[in-house]
Amino acid sequence: MKFRDGFLWGGATAANQCEGGYNKDGRGLANVDVCPTGKDRSLVITGKLKMYDFDEDYYYPSKEAINMYHHFKEDIQLFAEMGFKVYRMSIAWSRIFPMGDEEEPNEAGLQFYEDLFKECHKHGIEPLVTITHFDCPMHLIKEYGGWRNRKMIDFYEKLCRVIFNRYKGLVRYWLTFNEINMILHAPFMGAGLCFEEGENEEKVKYQAAHHELVASAKATKIAREVDKNNLIGCMFAAGSVYPYSSNPSDVWEATKMDRENYFFVDVQSRGKYPNYALKEMERKGTMPIMAEGDEELLAKYTVDFISLSYYNSRCVRTDDGEGETAEGNLFASAKNPYLEYSQWGWPIDPLGLRITLNHVYDRYEKPLFIVENGLGAKDVVDEHGYVEDDYRIDYLREHIKAMRDAVTVDGVDLLGYTTWAPIDLVSAGSGEMEKRYGFIYVDRDNEGNGTLKRSKKKSFYWYKKVISSNGDDLE
Fold it and tell me: Where is the signal peptide (predicted)?
């Protein structure tokens, strides 16, 4: 009942949620910078409210975040103290190409990530790098309309060629797009999309998604050409959908919602658009325009492994009853009466992780990698910066047990597990700091106040023990 030797334990962050330094060393403005906290955040990230620059009436948490840009050596040292084998992080596109369409990259940005990767290797940590974790240079959104424009494929290809060559030998695990299915739920944050009145929003989303899928295949092609040791993965927001009842209409609705999530991975892993998606897009008039050679590219350059985030399962009901709803990772669904819920209303379902892993592995039969899993909670910190976060330990313990059962009992091929997040950072959904996930407390509040001092929570020492025992000691 053990994980494999060399199982990759670690943690995951995103540049836009932790780096800060939004205007340092030549970095350009990105869509993720102009997503404010407060009631209008949802309107901005879904493309309903156009916000292309800062407005003094709003607070933008990603401008400074937790300033990992200037603290990365300290933070990686703390990750190493926990025993990390892998650190999943992302590159800020506008740090490499500030505008996105320049001929030459920004050397200061390239050097920053080179220094960061070397720091990881100094501590025996393997970087797992997401090329685009929602980041898109604002110039590409203003000038070209974001991923609705096919020219984005060329700009992304240039980014990939630069980073694959520059970091050859420093990075071998790559993810092309973070939670690619979020384009359907947070299109401005996921693809730089804002919508005009009367526009067919679904058609725009699926056209942008097609461009990202082609770009992902091109990235896979380039990565293998540059270094045969590179391993390329896709990444999606996972969580199996349960029917609320045995009513066949509930079961069918759950099947359709699962397919909506699997659609992107079907293309990236199987190499073609699935029939169910083609039929639906034909019916709805949302079929994307495909260029000659796209289908061949998608078929030839499928991913090596599939990575996923898992925070919760979902539940769906089709009756007209006024049942309660539950929140989730930008997905709302029917409230499952058999589950407990977090302070933010997210279902807590460890067995759902095992179910999801089995569903995904049965479907694709490729190695899996859990690259996000964690509990957002309000932490109470003492005068020494210490947090007694047994609730976080309990959540992770039960999910690791379920993950272990999926591997050792069910035979799922799992490469590794990186928690979200090893250190407190800005929440992608709400923009809050008080929604904390980390093993490391950061002195920062929702308004940007605080010293940014790092301190270890109780879960820091627990996770260190989990890693050193390769998942055997979970107490």
Answer: none
